[in-house]
Structures are given as C-alpha cells and as structure tokens.
Queue: 2 jobs
Job 1
Amino acid sequence: MGSIALLGLTSLTAGQIVGTDMFFGLAMSTIGGGIQLHAGNYAQDLLWKLIVSGIPGALFGATMATRLPSRPLRYALSVWIIGLGAQLCYRGLAS
C-alpha cells in the first residue's frame, strides 16, 4: 500500500521508490527478526534460505531499478504490487 501511494502521490522515480521500499523492508525485518531471534522462535534452515535468496534478489532489483526507464518500471511495479495484494486478499478470504 505504501509503494502504491508513493507511486501515485509523489514525484519520486521508480528507483527511489524501490530503494525506499527496500530500506523499509530491511528495517522491519531487522526489528522483527531480532525480536524473534531473541525469543528463540526461528528455524535456522529457513533463515539461511531467506538470506541466500534475499540478498541477490535485492541487489538485482536495485540494479534493475537504476537501469530501466522510470515510467514502464512504475507501471510494472504497480501491477506487481496490486497482484500481490489481490493474492493476499484471496488467500485470506479462502481460509
């Protein structure tokens, strides 16, 4: 929702929005992950899978955001985020 708002209501480039979204995700993951790690609620094998796949994905996304034209990237990002939101709503209602 925040990314959609940034896309529609600000004049930020798509690369800046991706960077803002990545920073926010990193901050929330660090805080939430730290709390769960401190409480002992984590699966070590899952943690390593997330780290191994997340770092290259973030680097690739950041690189592509700076190389692709801003307008098509904004549309693609909007469609992707709306699709993820629709899937989340569908799974929430289907349960």
Job 2
Amino acid sequence: MYAQLKKKMMGNGVSLVAVDGSIGVGKTSLARLLAQHLGARLVEENVEDNPFIERFYEDMGAYSLQAQLFFLMNRYKQQLSLSQKELFSELTVIDYIFARDKIFAHVNLTDDELGLYSRIASELETKLIRPDIVIYLQASSDVLFERIQRRGNAMERMISKSYLETLNEAFNHFFFNYTETPLLIVNTDRMDFVNDERHFHDLVQRVSEPVEGTELYVPSWETQ
C-alpha cells in the first residue's frame, strides 16, 4: 500500500519532503513515520549536538547568537550534503527546512545580531536544494506546552509558556506567508500520527496527491 503511494509521489515529481513546525508539534515523529512506511531516507537535525543550547535555555540573552550561528552552520552542512543525483532516485524525508533557522533568529536575536545573521544565512541559502513539498504541522500553544511537558526533555522543560507562545506566533506568521514551495498546513491539535494509524494513513494519502501553492489539510472523515 505505502509502496504504491511512494511511487505515486515520485511520479508527481516529489523526491524531497520536509516536515516542520514549532517545538513540541511532532515534526520528527511524523518524519520518522513517513521514512519508515515509505521506505525513504531520513534526515534529522540534531539539536543536542549544539554546545550552546543548554546555556541558551538558561540565559537566552547571553547565548542566543552563539546557539543560532551553530545551528545555522550545522543545518547548512547537512543540507548541502543532499545531492541532486540521490534525490532523483530516492525519496528523502527531512524534519526541518533551512529557513526554520530564520524563525528562531527573528525571535531570539537583537537587531544588530539579526543583521549579521541574515547576511550569512542569505548567502548560504542560495546553495541549497529546495524541498518538493513542505508539511507544516501547526498546533495551539497550549497543546504544544502540554506535549513538551509530557515528553520530559530536561532542556525543553526550561522553556516558558510565554516564549513558546511567541515562537508559535512566529512560526504561524512565517508559514502563512510562505510561497517558496508547495505547502500543506496540518493542524495537529486533534491528530495523533504515532498512535492512530488512521490519522497517519489519511495524511500520507493526501501527501501523495499534488499540492499546489498553500493548501490546508482536511482529514477525509471531516469531508464525508
């Protein structure tokens, strides 16, 4: 079943799928499921490799620029390794888009720091391959905060609810103005891709169909 959907996606010109969303929304979980069921290569960012991230959560003002630039260069090196040749022959799922970094930068950096960051990021971005489709997972701030508390990551537990709300607003603003690639917006407040196979399968069915511009995912059972 999923092999046919994979073939259909690649027949529609989709070889690089990116999943993104705010902290706690479940982007990595969905990316892993997509890769597993579709037999795709999985590319994940590794937040814990950042030596500044724990200090950032303890003192955001002092360590924002260091943490941001480390993320920027790591994500650049990782995405630069995605060769065009491989993407023509193999489906790849990545659990972030490069521009994700900009969202955090606008929230975390001062104006002077943002000016420096933006000059570097703009130069790097021109050298990278764009996804064929982006799946933006959206959720309310209350749901995100609850999920973060439930999954028990020690560093994430230091995130305040007010910071999470600001970050979530920034993600929504960015993606509601996003036009670079086809975009499928998925509200996850009442979705559970990990524990409810119907939810996951229905989304994969939709992703296997062409997405033009920006579209809002509507579960099939809500249209019947």
